[in-house]
């Protein structure tokens, strides 16, 4: 049994480089976080060797005595983390990722070609919520089901619930999905439930981004009114990469069997037991007062960052944030998200370009998404984020200058024009 370093130096060295990259720069991608050593230890454990198709107590393979205990513990902790009673709610902890969890949930709730409505991608929704363009069905959630996305109001950036209600009256969906990847505000669950009930539709909340905030009572509680709740485990929840599906144990709709069967055998094979153990470790941490403080700080930091950028005179979608992220509209500066992301990369700040409402070209989004969960895990406080805002202000000023120097809007000219710009190397040193 040789170590990774001895066995495969190439991969070992790349891991060391990535580790250095993660810790030497400013990590602002809203969907990322730094998980704990304990989580990584469970994730890298011998549990990865075991096959265990099925559920605890009902497996298709022998030798699952300990694996059953791990999965049961994970299920118990998942319910506890969100204060759910096992009488009313159940959870499947086997989905390999958030996308898989969502497709399993659709498999459980819908028949092929049934109708669903989810938040449109340019409004901040996720691909798996029925994403399609006017020309093409892109996500399997729009290929196998009929999708009619709903949007945010272009003036305010907030979800247009009135329009959603109007369109639902025409489309009569069987499922409404709420939740988002790039929406800086919370969700109006009572309004969504009311609209769903008008059509006898299910309501599914995908809380992938905000699950840590929900667990810490720092966001509205979707469990009060939704039938199914899905989440990833690696964003604000700070666990390994995976997904969870919570379902209401209503006898008449038998969601328990439908969800469990949708995961296995409909969409997945053997569960990744190492990951399930790592989720359990993360969920134990979520139940601590330290985690509640962490979630509060994530929001306070996002607010401080947003306010600092507003003070520089920049435009944020919805004018601010209620959660862990901000969406910065760069169109008034005549910049694209790609250009700002590029300069950020050059100075060791990691964030991502993001479409904002009103973009004409999906390939060249007009904004960037910035999140606070990862740097809050590295103990950043409000003052630190005011400093981050100053760095981002400098990045944007550099981008404006470089764009002028490039004399064209083309990305390749922009990259060439970045060469020998002193402010870039100066900022990199400071970061
Ligand atoms: N749902 C939402 C709201 C997300 O933001 C994401 C990913 O960013 C997913 C689902 C998909 O998760 P995964 O990348 O684990 O498949």
UniProtKB/TrEMBL annotation:
It catalyses: (6R)-5,10-methylene-5,6,7,8-tetrahydrofolate + glycine + H2O = (6S)-5,6,7,8-tetrahydrofolate + L-serine. Pfam families: SHMT. Pathway: One-carbon metabolism; tetrahydrofolate interconversion. Keywords: Methyltransferase, One-carbon metabolism, Pyridoxal phosphate, Transferase. The modification N6-(pyridoxal phosphate)lysine is found at residue 235. Residues 4-392 form the Serine hydroxymethyltransferase-like domain. The keyword Methyltransferase applies. SUPFAM superfamilies: PLP-dependent transferases. The keyword Methyltransferase applies. GO terms for cellular component: mitochondrion. GO terms for molecular function: glycine hydroxymethyltransferase activity; methyltransferase activity; pyridoxal phosphate binding. Signal peptide: none annotated. GO terms for biological process: glycine biosynthetic process from serine; methylation; tetrahydrofolate interconversion. InterPro entries: PyrdxlP-dep_Trfase, PyrdxlP-dep_Trfase_major, PyrdxlP-dep_Trfase_small, Ser_HO-MeTrfase, Ser_HO-MeTrfase-like, Ser_HO-MeTrfase_PLP_BS, SHMT-like_dom. PANTHER family: SERINE HYDROXYMETHYLTRANSFERASE, SERINE HYDROXYMETHYLTRANSFERASE 1. Belongs to the SHMT family. HAMAP family: SHMT. This is Serine hydroxymethyltransferase. It comes from Gigaspora rosea.
């Amino acid at each position: 049994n040789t170590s990774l370093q001895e066995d495969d130096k190439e991969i070992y060295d790349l891991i060391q480089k990535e580790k250095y990259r993660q810790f030497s720069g400013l990590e602002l991608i809203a969907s990322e976080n730094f998980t704990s050593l304990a989580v990584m230890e469970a994730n890298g454990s011998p549990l990865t060797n075991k096959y265990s198709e099925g559920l605890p107590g009902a497996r298709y393979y022998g030798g699952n005595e300990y694996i059953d205990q791990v999965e049961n513990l994970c299920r118990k902790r998942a319910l506890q983390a969100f204060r759910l009673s096992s009488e009313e709610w159940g959870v499947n902890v086997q989905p390999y990722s958030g996308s898989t969890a969502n497709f399993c949930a659709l498999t459980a709730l819908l028949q092929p070609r049934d109708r669903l409505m989810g938040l449109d991608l340019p409004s901040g929704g996720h691909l798996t919520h029925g994403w399609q363009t006017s020309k093409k069905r892109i996500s399997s959630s729009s290929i196998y089901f009929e999708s009619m996305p709903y949007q945010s109001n272009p003036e305010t950036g907030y979800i247009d619930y009135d329009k959603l209600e109007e369109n639902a009256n025409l489309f009569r969906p069987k499922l409404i999905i709420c939740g988002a990847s790039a929406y800086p505000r919370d969700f109006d669950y009572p309004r969504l439930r009311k609209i769903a009930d008008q059509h006898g539709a299910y309501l599914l909340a995908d809380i992938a981004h905000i699950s840590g905030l929900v667990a810490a009572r720092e966001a509205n509680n979707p469990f009060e009114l939704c039938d199914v709740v899905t989440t990833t485990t690696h964003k604000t929840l700070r666990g390994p990469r995976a997904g969870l599906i919570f379902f209401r144990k209503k006898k008449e709709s038998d969601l328990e069997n439908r969800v469990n069967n949708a995961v296995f055998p409909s969409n997945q094979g053997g569960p990744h037991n190492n990951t399930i153990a790592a989720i359990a470790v993360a969920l134990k941490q979520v139940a601590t007062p330290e985690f509640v403080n962490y979630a509060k700080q994530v929001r306070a930091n996002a607010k401080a960052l947003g306010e600092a950028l507003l003070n520089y005179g920049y435009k944020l979608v919805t004018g601010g944030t209620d959660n862990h992220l901000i969406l910065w509209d760069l169109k008034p500066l005549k910049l694209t998200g790609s250009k700002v992301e590029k300069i950020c990369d050059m100075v060791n700040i990691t964030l991502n370009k993001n479409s904002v409402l009103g973009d004409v070209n999906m390939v060249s989004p007009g904004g960037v998404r910035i999140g606070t969960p990862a740097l809050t895990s590295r103990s950043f406080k409000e003052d630190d984020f005011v400093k981050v805002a100053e760095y981002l202000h400098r990045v944007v000023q550099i981008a404006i200058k470089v764009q002028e120097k490039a004399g064209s809007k083309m990305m390749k000219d922009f990259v060439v024009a970045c060469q020998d710009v002193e402010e870039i190397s100066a900022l990199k040193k400071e970061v």
